Predict the 3D structure of the following.
Amino acid sequence: MPLHERRTLVNQLMVFLGVLAVWAAVFAGAGLATWFGAIDIIVVSVIGCIILGVLAFLTGLIGGRTHASTYVILRHAMGRFGSIAGGIIISGISATLWFAFETWLFGVIMSGAFPGFPLTEVGIAAIWGGILMMITAAIGYRGISVLSYFIVPAWFVIITLGLAAAIDVNGGMDALLVAKPPSPADIGTGITFVVSLYIVGATIAPDVTRFSRKPTDGPIAWFIHVVFFMPLILAAGGFLQLLAPGQNLVGVMVSLGMIWAVLLTGVLGQWTTNDNNLYSASLAWCNSIPKIKRVYWVLIMGIAGTIVAALIGFGFGISLDALLAFGLFLGTFIPPFTAVMISDYYVVRPYILKEKDPMTRYRFGPGTEYYALSWPDAIAVIVGSALAWYVPQVNPAIPAFGVGFLTSLILHIALMAVCAVAKIKWGVGKWIETPTGW
Amino acid sequence: MEEQIPLLLRNVRITLIAAIILAIIAATASATSDKALMGFTINTMPIILFSLITFARLSPKKDVKSLGEAAIQGLWITTSLGLVYLTLAPAAYFALPQTSVAVIMLAGAITTITGAVTLYRISKTTGVGLSA
């Protein structure tokens, strides 16, 4: 990583805030109001965001020290094929699904801003919105990403003012504190949902923190933005949903005459941020299957995402049920990957494989040898994911992300310790990095 | 590039002073409605705060790249916040008279346009990217 490309803490904080400044976060907060009252929304948001902050600090610090991206880091933890599978699941599939959901949200925002027009019906707007985003992602996004960056500070102020106005016209703080959720749920479900909203971001934090000037710059920036800003956004969406069930912040802001603010943050902001999701997804697929050009991956994933967005739009309309299910899905299947990344770098390498120096623990470059697959990691991820899916069905109070994360973490460390003591080979096959990095 | 530092500093400082003055004008114009005064103060305060912080970070002893980074990070926030005046002033919720709406929107437009132009010039002069 050349020195001139490295970035400060402030710069990385701005990048992360840009990722957070999307209406999806506000709608996710509204989703929490389906389950919790105002105080509990704050509790689950703060706990979930602190967990995310700690997890991403740990993953981000690996990126800050090694200056390598998530998928490259995973080569050491999971082997070459394990990292390809991880890349596809963590970013290729998840980022495409995020693209689908934010495209659906674009449809929701358009229908709220311009109700009653056939072209702004949720499903229809999702289709033409998805096509627009796909085009900008396909032809290159540098210019439009600057535009997205430019909107971020205004976004935070507009959402704050919109929420304050919405609370004001819907009965104020007194009404908020006595409002009850329609389907109360366990705190564990709420924490899982909050963690799941951003677990992909926490896992791929090294993609940004690898540009850190000091190893801790990026991780600290991640911690600040998720612990101090994300709960505010979740609370904004949740509080409004409690006060005005069935309405969303878009509709309320439009009814208060704030249509220009909605168009700026909701339409332009959503568009400029969401084509980034598609760009990330295409890069992940391109890294895994480089024979197909990136632009074709953009089109393939863009069409798939747009179809999903339109189906959600036609099936669920503006209902948040699909968003809740999606959030819980991510919270179930992504944390096991986060766990093996963290356990490999912080426990297995220094204490089991005796690679003490944190700066040279992972080496990269042409000629570096990796296993094709690390079987303890694969088992840890599979078992962790299966239990994370099963256990909360038996006892909903137990958070799925906790089951998946802890199971994979403990199992990975235990299997690697057994391999080390019994001198069992923990990797299968061999892969030597080429001069092109493949 | 070093010889351009005084000019760069002058441009950024003028833009920041203009942003502070325009923010105060916008806040004053919003005083005709309690809701608007309260709302727009939330926007005015960070403009003044970040302008002052950026002023403090603009030391002539720094190199061009550091100056460019400090200027872009500060101006990025004030320029963006100009959009808040521009988009929220006409909202019926704030119940502002037409004259106040016009003054606030004008203040927002000038803040955003001058900020964007200065950002572009700094980026071009210093070679620091707009997403610095």
Observations:
- The two ends of chain A are 17 Å apart (CA to CA).
